[in-house]
Amino acid sequence: MTSYVVHYQEIALKGKNRSWFISRLVRNLKEAVSDLDAGGVRAVQGRIEVVVGNADPLVVGERIGRTFGVANYSLAGRAALDFDAIAAAVLTDLGDRTCATFRVSARRADKRFPMPSPQIEREIGGRIRVAKGWKVDLEHPELDIRVEMLSHDAFYYFGKEKGAGGLPTGTSGKVVVLLSGGIDSPVAAARIMKRGCTALFVHFHSYPVLSRASQDKARQLVELLTRYQHRSRLYLVPFAEIQQQALLLMPGPMRVVFYRRMMLRIADRIARARHAQALVTGDSIGQVASQTIENLSVVGAVTTLPLFRPLIGTDKEEITAEANLLGSFPISIIPDQDCCTLFTPRNPLTKARLADVEQAEQGFPVEALVEAAIRDAVVEDIDFPVVGSTSRSRA
Description:
13 helices, 38% helix, VC0802-like
């Protein structure tokens, strides 16, 4: 078998914009296998073909499976539009494989083909049944042989692999994700990326008051997420000075809400500079003290950009399950010193009032601290397939 047949689902519903979505998906698949000795990627009559070439088929399949916009994919062979040729090619690739029951499922990409799908299935299936002696079972076959009739030849394959789904990266604009070293924010990032958004990442750290461990975790998480969008930018923003100032000037119970407001202010400034259209956090209602409805409302009041919280109604068990599927969970549980634990009050405010917080902030050099944090931030560009290829600069 020489190619992967890639199918999309949601893209097919896009009407007049469909060709643009397909071309973006083709481009993303080309990027995904760009470091492999693959044979090319092209759109073919309502599906996409990724030619394996001299690359490892398993590696090619893994890259396809992580590409947003792919509904399913299958390692496939090609044969001439002739029933004997198709059956012979199928039998060759089946080799000594055995099963009790099978069926042939056919589709016509080109409806001008003179025979309907049921007749195609009977013609090819009959030849395979004679050659193998297997029993036909149309309801619950052990092996489903799929055939897709194109204009000039046919694909055939055995079974399907589930793809990442969603929309192709780059079709829904740019967002800034506030990325901690915890379990939640990488899952929130993946959810929003699945909707076609390109994510920039902002991580707040308290180095040199605390260690570099949280920065290392953030970098590993972005490298993982970059496998899905191929290019990422990570802002490592120093936050210790803001926390030290808050220790002196901000009432203790109010500090956590103030920290969150400062983080959103900084992320807002970065988003506008990079022409991003929204902010994304990993908040879930009631999960921690800063995520009560009252506190979320007060925190979100500092920005006029859309603020997306993809996990807002999701519990920790569900988020952890998604983190395991994503592959971020083992990274997220590495011990580190998160900046949010620095100078945290024993009894944080759970029902903040906007007027009270704004009054407490009046004596605080908010704009100067935001400017300083952005100025001192380190920017890292991370690419995939060349994971770990990182360039660094000041913001």
